[in-house]
Design brief:
alpha/beta; Rossmann fold; 2 domains; six-stranded parallel β-sheet; three-stranded parallel β-sheet; binds guanine
């Protein structure tokens, strides 16, 4: 049987550590603050935003949630972002995705001051990541790297296969693995013989958003399997992108869904927010 990588417990430990860091900041008059903008009433996004607010409360971060109507104009959102960029109480700004189709994700992301871009989605921060000189790194990939590090297994020289090429997970985690000297393959919807590629991997990162797409038999014996997928089945149950039972027969380490990558994403968002507050206090700026 594989070792289950317990993201929930690791996220809890990270939050305890952050809570300890927030104390001295507060004594110096700095209360880390995170502003979250949620547009419309997408039910999954509402759940995530609520969880982010609760997590902020746990570690002593001020949370400012801005819920905007589905039909808000881009100019109105840009005005809010500009106000938050200039608000001293706010160290981190996050626009919850996905956005309604009339709002341009790129325009809004670029409007956020890179020093407050705790999602790590601004082209400045993506560019720094590509260069191997990261400033703010995206939360889910950062959480995945923490989970991999927790296994104590050397990443250098390993074959890593990332299934999924999103800007939020697939591309950035591939870069992070590359910077740790893994040999990285990115698979996507047009990839041929995906099963063979996954079958060669020492490390599999599944981030496609399709329930149980990665079958247990595909996994190489002893591989580390990180499942980023959160898919809700008709019966309400959450399942990952990996067939957990099947993959557990082959993997040495595997993350569960729920309780794997998900809690780490939120922990890393808090980590980035505290980092933003510490940088402001010390006068460090992006450019
Ligand atoms: N929607 C799904 N994941 C994320 C994330 O990491 N950040 C934001 N802003 N929206 C998301």
């Amino acid at each position: 049987m594989p070792t289950i990588i317990d993201g929930k417990s690791q996220a809890k430990d990270i939050k305890i550590g952050l809570h300890r860091e927030v104390g001295p900041l507060k004594e110096n008059g700095v209360i880390p603050g995170l502003a979250v903008i949620l547009v419309g009433d997408d039910s999954a996004s509402q759940v995530y935003v609520k969880a982010k607010g609760k997590a902020c409360e746990e570690v002593g971060i001020s949370s400012f949630q801005h819920r905007l109507d589905e039909d808000v104009t881009e100019d109105e959102v840009l005005k809010l972002i500009s106000e938050l960029n200039n608000d001293e109480k706010v160290h981190g700004i996050l626009v919850q995705l996905p956005l309604p189709p009339h709002l341009n994700e790129r325009t809004l992301t670029e409007a956020i001051n890179p020093d407050k871009d705790v999602d790590g989605f601004h082209p400045y921060n993506i560019g720094r990541l590509v260069l191997g000189e990261p400033y703010f790194q995206p939360c889910t990939p950062l959480g995945i790297m923490r989970l991999l590090e927790s296994t104590g297994i050397e990443l250098s020289g390993k074959e890593a296969v990332v299934v999924g090429r999103s800007n939020i997970v697939g591309k950035p985690v591939a870069l992070m693995l590359l910077h740790r000297n893994a040999t990285v393959t990115i698979c996507h919807s047009k990839t041929r013989e995906i099963q063979d590629k996954v079958g060669r991997a020492d490390i599999v990162i599944a981030a496609v958003g399709r329930a149980r797409m990665i079958q247990g038999e595909w996994i190489k014996k002893g591989a580390i399997v990180i499942d980023v997928g959160i898919n809700r089945k008709a019966d309400g149950k959450l399942v990952g992108d990996v067939d957990f039972e099947g993959a557990s027969k082959k993997a040495s380490y595997i993350t569960p869904v729920p309780g794997g990558v998900g809690p780490m994403t939120i922990a890393m968002l808090l980590y980035n927010t505290v980092l933003a507050a510490k940088r402001r206090q010390s006068g460090l700026k992006a450019s």
